[in-house]
């Protein structure tokens, strides 16, 4: 009996300190794992999301040659997506908080999948721009829905890991796309690359509708797992209109960090194939392996970044220290990206880019988790929407600027310099605006 009590006491010490209203968890009962099935659905949604947006970047050299796009026109096509993505984040974030993740996510996936398939009918820079606009509106729903779902299905001690896992789907999508898209395009034509990848969203939707409910309403979740999920739940509050979130420093800490670092990821996503083509001579049939190497390591970075802060919290670190220490490590790991523009060796460049993209994904997993750390669950979708909008605006600006810069100078040096320092500056802003990651207090 003494031995049993000792085991229970040790297990209890591993749990985070809960607020006064927290529900007790019987640590002698095995906690279930159904929540990880929900995480798997989020992972596959994010994978499909990134496959759909990556298709254009992979086909860009071929399409630019066939349709005589200039660098500026290609920049405008990307800007159309970014503008819609920014607008879509505000719309979709509000939809997720108003209608819930089940309905909201379903709507977003249908919209972006249809828009992805619509690219096959495009025949000019203008019509591609319209298709990208529709894709941007729909794809903006993925992260507000996914972060909201994690805040509902996971306690704080597991959220960064869950976000890191589903966020790694972005890299899996970026791995699958350079393997599948050239194969489809070279054998069946580029139009079928858009049609086949776009159809994946409708397959995912069937699984989502068959599986997802809120944890308190789900028939397959055990009481022990539900108690564990709700072990640090906050006091319920009324839904907060997104306009009332703007005055809070916590909102701006997240939003400005997204504005400064999301554009770097967009630069990687849309210009890496072109960089590898122009700087290292890689054609469509040879570009797959370097891109796969880059995004495999990015995948590891996403999971490792999410795991590290959760690990530190379980070791007794405060949420504030664990999140920011992990983000600092990631920011420092991005710095060497500057030397990419100085090397003529393909695999040295791939290694430096891989380190930077892995660090970005680890950073992103923790940055998203800050929202669930600082805001009540029924405001998470809106805050992620606001931050995503700012990140997309930054991506829109860098897309247009990159197009003009490369058209005039054909040099990637300034872009890699900006990429190397943005994360440290963003972390400094987070520290100034949210020094202790205090929860927002609704007025």
Automatic annotation (TrEMBL):
Residues 38-438 form the Major facilitator superfamily (MFS) profile domain. The keyword Membrane applies. The keyword Transmembrane applies. It is a multi-pass membrane protein. InterPro entries: MFS, MFS_dom, MFS_Na/Anion_cotransporter, MFS_trans_sf, Sugar_P_transporter. It comes from the Bacteria. Its main location: membrane. The chain crosses the membrane at residues 72-93, 105-128, 161-186, 192-210, 252-272, 292-313, 325-341, 383-406, 412-434. Keywords: Membrane, Transmembrane, Transmembrane helix. It is found in: Membrane. This is MFS transporter. It comes from Algoriphagus jejuensis.
């Amino acid at each position: 009996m003494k031995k049993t009590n000792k085991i229970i006491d040790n297990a209890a010490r591993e749990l985070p300190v809960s607020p006064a209203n927290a529900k007790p968890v019987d640590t002698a009962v095995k906690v279930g794992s159904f929540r990880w099935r929900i995480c798997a659905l989020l992972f596959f949604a994010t994978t499909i999301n990134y496959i759909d947006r990556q298709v254009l970047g992979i086909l860009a050299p071929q399409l630019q040659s066939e349709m005589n796009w200039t660098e500026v026109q290609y920049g405008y096509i990307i800007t159309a997506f970014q503008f819609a993505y920014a607008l879509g984040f505000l719309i979709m974030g509000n939809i997720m908080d108003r209608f819930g993740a089940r309905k909201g996510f379903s709507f977003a996936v249908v919209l972006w999948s249809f828009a992805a398939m619509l690219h096959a009918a495009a025949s000019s820079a203008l019509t591609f721009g319209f298709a990208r606009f529709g894709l941007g509106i729909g794809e903006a729903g993925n992260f507000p829905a996914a972060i909201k779902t994690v805040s509902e299905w996971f306690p704080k001690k597991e959220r960064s890991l869950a976000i890191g896992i589903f966020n790694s789907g972005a890299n899996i999508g970026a791995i699958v796309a350079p393997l599948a898209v050239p194969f489809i395009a070279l054998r069946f034509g580029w139009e079928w690359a858009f049609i086949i990848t776009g159809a994946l969203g409708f397959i995912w939707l069937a699984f989502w509708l068959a599986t997802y409910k809120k944890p308190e309403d789900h028939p397959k979740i055990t009481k022990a797992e539900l108690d564990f999920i709700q072990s640090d739940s906050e006091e319920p509050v009324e839904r907060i209109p997104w306009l009332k979130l703007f005055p809070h420093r916590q909102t701006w800490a997240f939003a400005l960090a997204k504005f400064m670092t999301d554009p770097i990821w967009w630069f990687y996503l849309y210009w890496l194939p072109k960089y590898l083509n122009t700087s290292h001579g890689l054609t469509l049939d040879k570009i797959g392996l370097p891109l796969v190497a880059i995004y495999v390591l990015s995948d590891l970075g996403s999971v490792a970044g999410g795991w590290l802060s959760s690990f530190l919290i379980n070791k007794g670190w405060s949420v504030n220290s664990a999140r920011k220490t992990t983000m600092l490590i990631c920011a420092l790991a991005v710095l060497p990206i500057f030397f990419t523009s100085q090397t003529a060796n393909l695999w040295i460049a791939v290694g430096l880019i891989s380190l930077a993209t892995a660090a970005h994904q680890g950073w992103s997993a923790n940055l998203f988790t800050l929202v669930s750390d600082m805001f009540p669950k029924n405001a998470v979708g809106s805050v992620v929407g606001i931050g995503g909008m700012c990140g997309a605006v930054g991506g829109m600006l860098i897309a247009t600027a990159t197009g003009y810069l490369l058209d005039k100078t054909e040099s990637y040096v300034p872009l890699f310099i900006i990429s190397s320092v943005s994360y440290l500056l963003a972390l400094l802003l987070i520290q100034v605006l949210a020094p202790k990651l205090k929860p927002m207090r609704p007025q």
